[in-house]
Design a protein that fits this description.
The longest helix has 18 residues. The chain is globular and about 60 Å long. By secondary structure, it is an alpha+beta fold. The chain is built from nine helices and eight strands. Helix 2 packs across helix 3, helix 5 packs antiparallel against helix 9 and helix 6 packs across helix 8.
């Protein structure tokens, strides 16, 4: 293979992986692209070395790697998404009287792109450009909950950090937290990022029904031991804003 055809084939492999709901075998990729298996394995090895593909050896399948998500997040940090989101978040903050934020995944971190405060703002640690471990804020949890399980495993092989002593500290606890998000329909965190503050978040989706960004509402809430409140009224407001942004970017929610 010369360099240019190899690049085109490598991009074709990434498009195939991006179009599937989960990891697939090298044989399936070879069939879809009408490539020799040896060529397919060579391309996958190069993409894996660069971080764009992850090999799930136990399943004998391949999925998108962390570098692919980072590349997508880099695109999202440009003006279009932020400009579309800002007026929607301003209205959300005014309606609920709390801070509204837009976040995107960057590897296993949550990056805040937009922050809109109400007329009487509350002091928060989060701000535009701030990154947090994605498994702690509701904004990150709701995005992780909509990723394939294999991708979450790749992002979190074993290392977990906490800020306040609350939040998942192991892969098993993270799986449990993400299952609760999927069952409920929105993410909740209580004091996992900042003591005496809680947040709820809904996902924004792209044209393939994949998580693109998250809309969160953060508010003051004092609970010494961590309560079980889920704030459905605030979650409904965040959901309406997330749905509006999904429509504006030409996205669609995933099948239920």
């Amino acid at each position: 293979m010369t360099d240019v055809p190899a690049l085109r084939r490598g991009l074709a492999v990434l498009r195939v992986l991006a179009a599937r709901p989960g990891p697939i075998s090298a044989a399936a990729i070879a069939r879809e692209l009408d490539l020799p298996r040896s060529t397919t394995y060579h391309l996958l090895a190069e993409l894996e070395a660069a971080g764009f593909v992850v090999h799930l050896a136990a399943e004998r399948r391949y999925g998108l790697g962390i570098a692919a998500f980072e590349l997508g997040s880099a695109y999202l940090r440009h003006d279009p998404l932020e400009r579309l989101a800002a007026p929607l978040l301003r209205k959300l903050a005014d309606r609920v009287g709390h801070t509204a934020q837009l976040g995107v995944l960057h590897g296993n971190e949550l990056l805040y792109l937009v922050k809109e405060r109400p007329s009487a703002p509350e002091t928060l640690v989060t701000d535009v450009g701030v990154r947090l471990p994605a498994h702690l804020p509701a904004s990150g949890l709701v995005l992780l909950a909509h990723l394939p399980h294999a991708h979450v495993r790749a992002l979190y092989p074993r290392s977990f950090v906490t800020r306040t002593g609350r939040g998942p500290t192991s892969p098993a606890e993270l799986r449990q937290a993400l299952a609760a998000v999927r069952s409920r329909g929105w993410a909740v965190e209580d004091g996992q990022v900042t003591a005496d503050f809680a947040s709820v978040a809904h996902a924004v989706f792209d044209h393939n029904g994949r998580p693109l960004a998250s809309v969160a509402v953060t508010f003051r809430h004092v609970c010494e031991t961590g309560c079980t409140r889920t704030w459905p009224d605030l979650a409904q407001e965040a959901a309406a804003t997330a749905a509006a942004l999904t429509r504006q970017v030409g996205g669609k929610p995933p099948p239920t």
